[in-house]
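As a next step, the fold was encoded as tokens, giving this record:
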Amino acid sequence: MTMSRILVGTSLVAIMLVTSGCGTFGGNRKPRQPVETRSADEIFKELDAEKGDTGPESTVWDIFKKREDPGRVGAVNRYLWNSALDVLDFLPVETIDPFSGVITTGYGTPPGGGRANRATILISDPALDARSLNLALHTRSGPVDPATVRAIEDAILTRARQLRKEDSRF
């Protein structure tokens, strides 16, 4: 039994020695190439060049070009955004996303009112326009009267115009 263990052990050692040298004696091994390191700017410039976009190059004449509307926050109009938050400040804000234009509030009771309301506001366009504003109001028992929704939309639009007028003074 001990003799068989010795034979098995020596044969395993011999197999390991033979296979451990594989690949080093053949001479077919290629030397490792150094890894090319590039900065992120170089990579992005290369990707833009492949797409045909060389990126914005600024010149002295750029000061005369038309600039973007300063009333934009992300993809929405900042006056509508701020006025919606001002008019509906009695409602607790649950989620807010200026890039998609969605404001979701929790239930809150308006000043002088008896029913708790919940609102979802969608500002879908960067223009200061009534079509850009969508408002959904709900009570715990269901949707609110459309006349009430229209009155709150008008209040938001009026406040947005006031904010824009205040900004134009400066």
Notes: The first strand starts at residue 72 and ends at 73. Helices lie at 2-20, 40-51, 78-87, 146-169. The chain has a mean pLDDT of 78. The beta strands are 72-73, 76-77, 93-97, 102-105, 117-123, 133-139, 142-143.
